[in-house]
């Protein structure tokens, strides 16, 4: 199943193609800014301007969409593999924008505030860590994002007294929620 970028008021658009919705926006820009229409054809300069605007509009939408997905990344990881289309959309947008640093800062902050504190069960931390490994592999096959963003999880798990016990229980199938650990190995 292909991932879908869905801007407001438009149908689903596969991320591999900018989609008709961007063309509608560019068409609107042509009519508004260049006064392009059937009675008045666009000049070559206007066509060049419109091509530049098309690039700006695409980049703008990719940056906005990536920013929205980056803010939701903790939940997207938690819901993986059901959220795989969102990961694929984000990957597509990150390939066209320079937002990896924003992603790293945001994800590390979300992990530290929402996951890495005494109120969260070790089993839940391990389960989310497994989901993060799976999701971030899809997002970044080089696994650089995984190494950097998940370093606080690895460091925090070393401080928990029951980490080894939960991992062993997960491997033997004695613990709820960490069954993925046995499957992965």
Could you list some keywords that capture this structure?
mainly alpha, 10 helices, elongated, Anaphase promoting complex subunit 2, ANAPC2, TPR_ANAPC2
Q: How is this structure best described in words?
A:
- The chain has 185 residues and is mainly α.
- It has one domain.
- Helices cover 66% and strands 0% of the residues.
- It has 10 helices and no strands.
- It is elongated and about 70 Å long.
C-alpha termini separation:
26 Å
Radius of gyration, in Å, reads 22 Å
- Count of the separate structural domains: 1
What is the percentage of strand-forming residues? under 5%
**If helices are DSSP runs of H or I spanning 4 or more residues, what is the number of helices?**
10
> Could you estimate the helical fraction of the residues in percent?
55-70%
What would the principal axes of the Cα set say about the shape?
A: elongated
Overall residue-averaged pLDDT value: 80
Protein name: Anaphase promoting complex subunit 2
Organism: Ictidomys tridecemlineatus (Thirteen-lined ground squirrel)
GO cellular component, one term: anaphase-promoting complex
Domain Anaphase-promoting complex subunit 2 TPR repeats: 51-160
């Amino acid at each position: 199943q292909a991932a879908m970028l869905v801007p407001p008021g438009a149908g689903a658009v596969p991320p591999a193609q900018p989609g008709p919705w961007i063309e509608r926006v560019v068409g609107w820009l042509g009519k508004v800014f260049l006064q392009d229409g059937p009675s008045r054809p666009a000049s070559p300069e206007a066509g060049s301007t419109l091509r530049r605007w098309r690039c700006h509009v695409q980049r703008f939408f990719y940056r906005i969409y990536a920013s929205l997905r980056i803010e939701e990344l903790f939940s997207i990881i938690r819901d993986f593999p059901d959220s795989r289309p969102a990961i694929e959309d984000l990957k597509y947008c990150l390939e066209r924008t320079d937002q990896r640093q924003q992603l790293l800062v945001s994800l590390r902050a979300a992990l530290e505030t929402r996951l890495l504190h005494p109120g969260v069960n070790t089993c839940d931390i391990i389960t989310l860590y497994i989901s993060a490994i799976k999701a971030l592999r899809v997002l970044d096959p080089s696994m650089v994002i995984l190494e950097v963003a998940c370093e606080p999880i690895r460091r925090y798990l070393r401080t928990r007294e029951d980490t080894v016990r939960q991992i062993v229980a997960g491997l033997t199938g004695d613990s709820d929620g960490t069954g993925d650990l046995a499957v992965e190995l």
